[in-house]
């Protein structure tokens, strides 16, 4: 990986991890969230992902883990910057829409 920093003799990789947990009180379905971690191997990526879990269940499980080395024809590389992470670009829910219709701002049902 170009521009990557060597961490303990192994190059770091970017992983996407889909976490799940038992339902919070009053919920019928599992809680889920996707987290991204940088790690040198899948096993340590799993531990790092669990540490980022924000759900009610104290012991999340991993439904999926994927190393991200390329996306849509672009290579993913890592460069050490010292920053923890960026703020979300556009936090919040985006409803489904028809690709042919122009995007409009979300409306509040209340």
How would you characterize the overall build of this protein?
With 110 residues, this protein is mainly beta. It has a domain at 1-20 and 27-41 and 56-79. 10% of the residues lie in helices and 26% in strands. It contains one helix and five strands; from the N terminus they run E-E-H-E-E-E. It has one helix at residues 42-52; strands at 13-21, 31-39, 61-67, 70-71, 74-75. The strands form two sheets. A three-stranded antiparallel β-sheet has the order 2-1-3, with helices on one face. The chain has a two-stranded antiparallel ribbon with strand order 4-5. It is globular, with a radius of gyration of 18 Å. The N and C termini lie far apart (49 Å). The model is unreliable at 1-6 (pLDDT under 50).
Percent strand? 25-35%
Unreliable stretches covering 5 or more consecutive residues:
1-6
Please give the alpha-carbon distance between the first and last residues.
49 Å
Tell me the radius of gyration.
Answer: 18 Å
Described by strand count, sense and barrel closure, the largest sheet is: 3 strands, antiparallel
Order of helices and strands: EEHEEE
The neighbouring-strand order within the major sheet is 2-1-3
Produce the secondary structure layout.
Layout: E1 13-21, E2 31-39, H1 42-52, E3 61-67, E4 70-71, E5 74-75
Antiparallel strand pairs: 1-2, 1-3, 4-5
Give descriptors for this structure.
mainly beta; three-stranded antiparallel beta sheet; 1 helix; disordered N terminus
